[in-house]
Amino acid sequence: MSLMQRISAFLKSPKGQQLVDRGRREMAKPGNQQKLKGLAARLSNRRR
């Protein structure tokens, strides 16, 4: 089984769904969105 198949199977499992839901809840928080935007900005500046 390839890595992508294993990841896909995990994400479809109950444990994987719990992890996805937790990630969505965390990203709904304004503070975490701000941190992610800052990280994306730093990474895009580093590539230039």
UniProtKB/TrEMBL annotation:
Q: Which domain of life is it from?
A: Bacteria
Region annotation (Disordered) maps to: 1-48
Q: What is this protein called?
A: Uncharacterized protein
